[in-house]
What we know:
The structure holds three protein chains of three kinds. Chain A has eight helices and 21 strands. Chain A is an alpha+beta fold.
Amino acid sequence: MNGIVLENLSKSYKSETVLDGVSLTVPEGRMLVLFGPSGAGKTVLLRCIAGAVDPDAGKVVLGGVDVTGFEPEDRGVGMAFQNFALFPHMTAEENIASPLKARRSTKTIVRQGVDAVARLLKIDHVLSHPPKALSNGQKQRTSLARALVAQPHYLLLDDPLRNVDAKLRYEMRLELPRLLADQGATVIYVTQDYKEAMAFGDQIAVLDGGRIVQAGTPEDIYLRPATIGISELFGDPTINLLDVVPERDERGIYITLSDQRIPLGDGYDAAVGKPCTLGLRPEALAFTDLETGIPVVIEAETPFNEKTVTLALTKRGREVLVSRPAGMPGPAEGESAFVSVNWRALLLFDRQNGQRIVPEGESGRTEAAA
Amino acid sequence: MTDAVLDRVPRRRVRISRKALPYLLSLPALLACIGILIPFFTAVAYSLQRYRLSQPWARKWNWGENYLNFLSDPSFWNTLQVSMTYAFLTVGIELLLGLGIALLLQRRTRFNNFVSIMLLMPLMTAPALASLMWKLMTNPGFGILSYFATLIGIEDFRWASDPSTAMLTVVLVDVWVYTPFIMILLLAGLRSLPRQPFEAAALDGVPRLFVFWRITLPMLTPFLLTATLFRMIESIQQFDIIYAMTQGGPGDKLTVFQVEAYLNFFQSTNVGRSAALLMILWVITYLLSNIFVKNWLRLREKQRGAI
Amino acid sequence: MITISPIERILRGIAITLVILFFMFPIFWIFLMSFQTNETILRVPPSIVFEPTMSNYSALITGKLETNAGLLEFEFMRNLWNSFFLSVSSVAVGLLLGVPAAYAFARLKFRGSEDIAFTLLSFRFAPPLLVLLPLTIYFQQIGLANTYVGLIWVYQLIVLPLILWIVRGYFEDIPADVEHAYRIAGHSWAATFRKIALPLAGPGIAAAGLLAFIFAWNNFIFALVLASADKQPVTVGALAFVTASGIQYGQIAAAIVLSITPTLLLALYAQRYLVEGLSLGAVKG
């Protein structure tokens, strides 16, 4: 197996377990987005791969070679750091050139390599500056250039857009996937921004508490999160979580929300009578004129660019977020309204262990449109 | 970009083992110090022996006898007393004076910075040489300080050669040399204190004396403690100033631990007693330095955290 | 801004003047003395008006001192050279041994590293004679008595802990990621140490070196115990000088001035780092 393979990586500091048996595979030439909240162990994982940190147990295999215990310089890895980690006493150019010089390249090759990558990242005009004379965006590009310049087979990017301003982050989100695809490298891209994860990933792995809690396509993770925790991490505004207990009558399995009967689809037999948590994405709710909807009172409204998010209060005093595409009219603050539920997009979690209750017969692909 | 030169594939090379590296790096320093640990253990052995350089044939283990003898040895108690007096006097005076000067120079003005740098000069003078300087200044024949004494009506003030003023004289030299040490440490401490409490107190019209006792001093405590312990450890071991000034005299007026041990070793060639004296001194400094290191670590942690 | 009353201003002024007077006067006075002959020194009342003479310095430099009892050969320049040589060599050796060790302690946390570091630190606080007295006997046996090598070795007792603890702090201040980045870029740890850690800790290493030099230069007790006349530094030499009878006071003063000038100048140069060095890296100035 080529590409990056991690087997059962574990690492603890004193009594704190940071990585708890992480196994991952990134096929040759593909990109994996490693997503997780801060403190999940993402950075430590990258350091284990790069060789800056020794794992307590487990293996790192790069291109079929078990590199566990290799020195960082022998792994042929490129890495960009969240805090950039530029060499403060060297110019941007020397920073970028260092991987090439380490490989004893000739002057011409170094020159050409640096120029090419600098032009690509549009920092050719600041090459002679020391890091402290660079803006955050330029620092970020310099550190990216340094990671790319030697065209490593394995590229580790530790949240490189975290510390740059919003405008640049937006631009880079568009540019970076193309750039990385051109490199042909096997990439692990770490982020704690779910939008970035959704925008970049062929594949996303979700790391939480030192474990991979779910791996799959962005769609998989958004629509079929494995746990309550993951459903909360993905999505802005965050998912509505309501405590329910599914029941069964002659018409099928259903739940009750504000006295309204909401049917669950087929296959939830196992959930009947169990304390569950209902996950409703704000876009799975919509305002309706039909009185069959859930009656609510509108509390507040926040317009985003592409959608409007409304905070509504049910009769039972539960707050839910409802989103609708921007421009679509909706009830005003203080007004009463009805909310309908797209029952095909609802998620049901076992309240005891937080795992999603997978309905029988759920196929791997998109049957539920959000 | 050319691929040919780039080794992009992981390849293990022969390297110094990661585990061995730190030991290899610190080994030379450790070896240099082990050479120093051996004499330390030798000293422990000496202190348990009857050992006179002048009577090597009579050398034998006498175990705790050297220590037991101290109990009934007035000159040992004199040594202990003189050392303690010296340490407490010097550290006490230096602390008060150093704090006072640090408060005077607290504001960051050019003049204050200049003065604080100038005041470092005594500290950078070798203590042994400082003693010689003061010896010249307190010479009964031509010393400027002796002359000043006569000016204020004290005739024939004999400074270090008079048993009653010898201690005063060496303490004076110690104060001259080491007050700047306390001053510079406390100055750094004062200047690193957060401003808000002081600004708030000034706005509320809190009396300055109250601010000093209730805000400044408590916040300065770790610095005061570090400076005090540091000086205490050094002061109780003082040798240079006293030896250069009077070699322990007049009589046994200034025979502090290290001076007494030195004289025991080189003049009465009583190695056993000398070593036992030093062991006792070592125990005292060891206890002090343990407290010191704990406090020092805390301070170091805090200062590094702040930057 | 706290306002200061005129009375307080005056009191502060007086206090500062007294402080400056007390701490500066001895250096000033000895400096003046070094340009005087016994004749002017012995005047009563003393006066700062005199005809300066360089004779004290020239006598020291030629090593031929005129005394009441005739001409005395005294190689004070030799002492000065010894001080210089011992201090420079000790610091060089101390840096060579201490900087890699400091790096190991700062970066490559290893088993027992803290204990070892503290053991080294504790040497700084042990009574020097405790080690020196047995060492005199050992040095006789292994032929290191009264040699530069022996002295330089013993000087490590003051130089090493200082260098170790100050430089360690500077290494710790370098972000670990910067070093990781250099390793990942393809450089060995040795290259990383040379090209990243050393340059970035450079100012700290220089400061530690300067301070260690000052401490080595000012040391008295090591050489007093272990060195005889031809290897003695100025601190011990000057003492012998004073006790030798009949030497002119001006010449003693000149010897003192020559002996303290190097450290005072270095201290002025390195004053930015003094606080940190004096507190063994605990307090930043």
